[in-house]
Amino acid sequence: MRARRAQDVPIGPPPLADPATLPHLDPHQAPWPGGEVTSGGVTLHVRETPGPQDTPAVYVHGLSGSATNWTDLAALLSTRAAGTAVDLPGFGHSRPLASRDYSPAGHADALLCFLAGRGRPVHLLGNSFGGAVALAVAARRPELVRTLTLVSPAMPDLRPHPHRVSDPKLLLALLPLIGKRARAELAAMDPRTRAEQVVRLCFGDPTLVPEHRMAEAAAEYAARARLAWAQEAAERTGKAMVAGWLRGESLWSVAARVQAPTLVVWGERDRLVAPRLARRTAAALRRSRLLVLPGVGHVAQIEAPQTVARAVAGMWDAVGAGTWEEPG
User: Which residue of 83, 84, 117, 174 pairs with 238 in a disulfide if CB–CB is 3.0 to 4.6 A?
Assistant: First the structure.
C-alpha cells in the first residue's frame, strides 16, 4: 500500500478514554521494580507494572533514556494492561549484547527476539529512538504487535530545526565525526548538570519538572556513569542513527509496512524531532490517528501523562471494540 501523503489525507484525532476510567496518578510514584529477564535469547533489564495479562504493554525509551521514562504512563494504564518497560541493550541497567551492535537494526533485532520469546502480541509503545525501534519491529513482525504508539519517533530529518540550537552540545554529540569534543564534555559533566541540560532540551516547559523527578534523573545519570559500557552505548547508538540518516536509510518506507493500529503523539514544542514531521509520520502509516499537544516537548509521556494515557487507552478500547477505522 502506497504511503499516504500528509497534505492530501485527513488524519483524525484519537478517541480519548474517560479520565474516570484511569487510576489516580501519584505524582511521587516511584520507578517500578526492575530486574533482568531473558527471553528469545536476549537478556534485558526491565521494569514491570502489574495489571491484566490479556495483551501486555511494552514500553521502549529513547536515546540516553531508560525504562524509568515510562513510570507515570505505565501506572495510568495499569488497570488495562500489565506493563514491561525495557532498557535497550547498553542503556539503563541492561548489559550490551555480545555483538556490540548499537545500530537501529541491532536494537530492533534485540527487541524483536525478546518479544518473540514471550510468544504473544503486545501493545508496543516507543518514544524518540525507541519509537523508531518499535516502528521497525511492528513492520517486520506484525503478529507480535496488537497496537503501536509512537511518541515523537526519531524519523529521519536532516533539515535545520531552529530550536535545536538552544543546546547544541547534545546534538553535536550525535554526529559521527565532529561530535568527539562535545561527547567528551558531556561525559565530564556532573549528573545534576547533565539532567538539567537534558530537561531543558526535551521538555516544552522545563520549569514544570518537580524537584524529586530532577533528583531521580540525576541519580540515574550517576548510576550509569559507573557502568563500563554506558558511554559507549549512548555514543555508538546516536552516531549509528545519524549515520543511517546520512546514508539515506529511511523509516518512511518502513512505516508504510506497519499493519497495526497506530497512535502518533507529538509535542508542539519538540526541539529534537521537528513537529512538522508529525502529520507526515501519521500519513505514512495505514491505520493511524494523530495527537499534537500544545506546550509539550519531546517526551509527552512524561510531560503530559494523563492526556497521553487517555489517548492510548482510547485506542486500545476502540481496537477492542472494532471501531478503530482508517481515517479518510
Answer: 174
C-alpha dihedral, 155 to 176 to 87 to 277, nearest 10°: -10
Q: What's the pTM value of the predicted model, to 2 decimals?
A: 0.92
Instruction: DSSP letter for 208, please.
Output: G
Integer angstrom CA distances of residue 246 from 2, 67, 111, 220, 238 = 24, 29, 24, 31, 13
Report the alpha-carbon distance of residue 278 to residue 299 in Å, rounded: 14
Strand partners, 151: 127, 265
- CA geometry: angle at 242 spanning 238 and 244, to 5°? 115
Is 225 buried (19+), middle (13-18) or exposed (0-12) by CB count in 10 A? middle
Domains annotated for the chain, with CATH where assigned, are: 19-161+248-321 (3.40.50.1820)
Q: Given the DSSP bridges, would you call strands 42-49 and 83-86 parallel, antiparallel or unpaired?
A: antiparallel
Q: Which three cell numbers stand for residue 93?
A: 541497567
Per the listing, cell 507526515 goes with 280
Neighbours of 12 (CB within 10 A): 13
Q: Summarize pLDDT for 290-310 with one digit per residue, the tens.
A: 999 999 999 999 999 999 999
Q: How many residues does the chain have?
A: 328
d(CA 130, CA 285): 17
CB 281 within 8 A of CB 154: no
Order of strands across the sheet that contains 57-60 = 34-39, 42-49, 83-86, 57-60, 122-127, 145-151, 262-267, 288-293
φ, ψ at 38 (rounded to 5°): -105, 130
Report pLDDT digits (tens) over 144-166. Answer: 999 999 999 999 886 655 454 44
